[in-house]
Every structure is written in structure tokens, then in C-alpha cells.
């Protein structure tokens, strides 16, 4: 589905992404792990059109999407979330979802005068869809709450809900578990699995919580110093000597159990 070929992103003399090559298979939940500074988020930003690559190529289903802006990729079904949720705090959770789909009739001034019936019909349909999404994510009780007043984990669920308001095909999740309590993280994980299995979403997940990665992701890709270091199951990644040295800590593989 997504093919990244020899991708580079340089900031002056710093090579944040340094020749990364990887494939994201359709229908997968792929984990992307690595130490801080490995280039994971920069890779996300380049693929999602937030940053232009220094060199290299990104294709989606064989189509070259290298350097396309986020709104163009949004139209192709490629979306991303951020480590810090970007909700519209003064709007309700329902309103945050309703505003996601583009090309709404009410966006044109002319239609606000002469297309009021159509606008009202669209808003009813969007409201119904938003309520369905909130129910799916088990946060329907927050529909009328201001988005800026809900918890960090609930904001992450709301970001996931935004992807459900359009025809998302692949979603890049950047540290969805950051600052989220275990109960809500399990709820987020449940939603990701359901979206993958029931609606065919493809996910790429940056996350430092290895329990979360192990539950959701196969394959797992490990990056270090801007390069892809290893790929496989989490068990294979943990057993890889290069990963142990670069990420998990030298000698971890051979560490003895401490008696209880």
C-alpha cells in the first residue's frame, strides 16, 4: 500500500531520515519503534506531506505521492494524528467530528443564502454520523462536552474519530498512548483493532509502550539514526542483536532473572 524508497530528510547537516526503505502492507497494523531521535516522527511527517523529503520516493498503491501536501493526501484517504491532540477546544466533541468532511455546502457564502435546506440536510447527516462514531468509540457521553475540557486519552479517541468521518484508508498514529492512562489506552487499542478488522483500516503506529505494540502490531519496524534497522514480529525484533544494541540496551537479551 505504502512504499518508501531510500527516503532522506536533512536539516542542514543533520540527517533525520537517512535512506529509509520500508513497505506498509494493506490491512496491516504496523508498529514503528526506535529510540528518541531515530527519525520516526520525521518519517511520518514526510510521508504525510507535512515535510518535503530531501530525496527519495513515496508511493501509495503504485501512485507517486512524494511531496504532496496533507490536504491532497487527505483526499486520497491518508491521514495522520499527532502526539499532542489538535482538538478545537471551544467546540463540542460532536462539532469537532462534524467539521471534518471537506466540501460541505455551508462552506460557500452563496449557499448560506440560497442553499439553506441542503445545508440543514447535510448537518443532520453529519450529526448522525458523528454520533455513530462517538458510540463506536464509547465516548457518546461526551458528545456535548467542550473538546478542550475532556481528558488527554479522550482527546486521542476524538482524533481517531476524525479519521472515521471520512473514507480513511491508512492512518498514521504518532504516540497515541502518550499521557494516556492504561484503561483508556486499552479502549484506544480496542477501537484500532475493530477499525482494522471490521472496516479495513491500515494503521502505522509509533509507540514506546511495548505491551501496546505487542497487542496490536505485526509487523514491527525498528528505526535507529534515520535508518530501518530491523523488521519482523516484536519477538524477532527483541531478539535482534542490532536492535538490542541500538534501542533495548546492550546485554538485555542475556540479562538474568532477579529472584522475587
Automatic annotation (TrEMBL):
Looking up InterPro entries in the UniProt record yields: AAA+_ATPase, ABC_AA/LPS_Transport, ABC_transporter-like_ATP-bd, ABC_transporter-like_CS, BCA_ABC_TP_C, P-loop_NTPase
* Keywords assigned by UniProt, alphabetized: ATP-binding, Nucleotide-binding, Transport
Q: Where is the signal peptide?
A: none
GO MF terms held by the record:
ATP binding; ATP hydrolysis activity
Q: Does the keyword Ligase apply?
A: no
Gene3D superfamilies associated with the record: P-loop containing nucleotide triphosphate hydrolases (3.40.50.300)
Recorded GO CC terms: plasma membrane
| Domain ABC transporter stretches | 2-250
Cross-referenced Pfam families, in alphabetical order? Answer: ABC_tran, BCA_ABC_TP_C
Name this protein carries in UniProt: Amino acid/amide ABC transporter ATP-binding protein 1, HAAT family
Amino acid at each position: 500500500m505504502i512504499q518508501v524508497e531510500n527516503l532522506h530528510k536533512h536539516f542542514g547537516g543533520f540527517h533525520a531520515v537517512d535512506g529509509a526503505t520500508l513497505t506498509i502492507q494493506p490491512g496491516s497494523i504496523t508498529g514503528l519503534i526506535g529510540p528518541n531521535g531515530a527519525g520516526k516522527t520525521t518519517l511520518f511527517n514526510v510521508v504525510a506531506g507535512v515535510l518535503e523529503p530531501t530525496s527519495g520516493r513515496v508511493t501509495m498503491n503504485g501512485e507517486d505521492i512524494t511531496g504532496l501536501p496533507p490536504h491532497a493526501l487527505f483526499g486520497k484517504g491518508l491521514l495522520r494524528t499527532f502526539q499532542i491532540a489538535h482538538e478545537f477546544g471551544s467546540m463540542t466533541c460532536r462539532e469537532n467530528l462534524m467539521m471534518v468532511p471537506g466540501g460541505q455546502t455551508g462552506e460557500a457564502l452563496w449557499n448560506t443564502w440560497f442553499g439553506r435546506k441542503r445545508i440543514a440536510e447535510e448537518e443532520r447527516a453529519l450529526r448522525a454520523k458523528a454520533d455513530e462514531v462517538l458510540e463506536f468509540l464509547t465516548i457518546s457521553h461526551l458528545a456535548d462536552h467542550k473538546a478542550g475540557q475532556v481528558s488527554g486519552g479522550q482527546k486521542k479517541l476524538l482524533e481517531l474519530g476524525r479519521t472515521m468521518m471520512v473514507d480513511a484508508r491508512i492512518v498514521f498514529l504518532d504516540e497515541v498512548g502518550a499521557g494516556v492512562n492504561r484503561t483508556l489506552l486499552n479502549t484506544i487499542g480496542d477501537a484500532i483493532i475493530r477499525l482494522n478488522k471490521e472496516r479495513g483500516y491500515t494503521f502505522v503506529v509509533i509507540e514506546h509502550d511495548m505491551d501496546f505494540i505487542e497487542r496490536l502490531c505485526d509487523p514491527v519496524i525498528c528505526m535507529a539514526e534515520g535508518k530501518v534497522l530491523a523488521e519482523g514480529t516484536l519477538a524477532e525484533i527483541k531478539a535482534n542483536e542490532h536492535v538490542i544494541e541500538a534501542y533495548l540496551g546492550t546485554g538485555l537479551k542475556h540479562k538474568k532473572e532477579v529472584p522475587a
